[in-house]
Amino acid sequence: MKKITIVEDDKILYKELEKLFENQGYQVTTVDSFKDAHKEIEQINPDLAILDINLPETSGFVICKYLKENTSIPVLMLTGRDTLEDELESLNLGADEYLTKPCNPTRLVARAKKLMKIYEKLRDVILIGDVALDISSYKLSYKDDYVIFPMTEGEILRKLMEAYPKPVGKEDLLEEVWSSKYIDENILQVNLTRIRKKLKAIGLNDAIVNVRAIGYKFEYKD
Fold first, then answer.
1. Which of 42, 148, 149, 169 is the most exposed place for a label (fewest CB within 10 A)?
2. Contact between 140 and 133 (Cβ < 8 Å)
3. What is the pLDDT of residues 38-49, one digit of tens each?
4. Closest Cα partner for 155 from 135, 128, 130?
């Protein structure tokens, strides 16, 4: 069952939206704190986030910006603010759709379904700038070139790209890829050396960097 998270401070409208999408077969969730809504949505990891702009303690703009910089969750802005400036601001922050209240329920559901369908096709691809990693085949494409990684190297790269722009600890990588943090760290170093060499061959220099006292991170420079 696909999940939709709705961030709306009008409780009556929220209930109407909840009923609308539940009748369509979706699981609907909300957030407990508007101030920390961006973090809660990230943890819920829904198939779609529907955001109002005017919210207590924060705004839909702030939440949208965070989600687009840190997650791959599609965002639909549903707001009473109908100015061109607000719409452009939302789209510039990465919002995928902008609808104004009151909105025809059929149109809202149709747009929501369309967004989820588009993103469903992208779930198997991690995209950072011009770098795309297909996690089903571990094929990494960069501009007009590509390289296919074996499973272990591909999994390391996947973990680093999923965490982007944050670093991943050495022990976390060992546990995620080898299911044990007690594996000899030299194995990780050997694999990272191979990955860096292959990335460099297609023009991605210094894409994996050491983060002192933590581990490693994927770095993209356009």
1. 148
2. yes
3. 989 988 889 999
4. 135
- Per-residue model confidence as pLDDT tens digits over 47-76: 999 999 989 989 899 999 998 887 878 999
Q: Which residues of 26-60 are buried (b: 16+ CB within 10 A; e: fewer)?
A: bebebbeebeebbebbbeeebbbbbbbbebeebbb
* Cβ atoms within 10 Å, residue 134: 16
Query: What length is written for the chain?
Result: 222
Q: How confident is the model at residue 122 (pLDDT cuts 50, 70, 90)?
A: low
Runs of H (alpha helix) within the chain: 11-22, 37-44, 60-70, 84-92, 105-122, 151-163, 170-178, 185-201
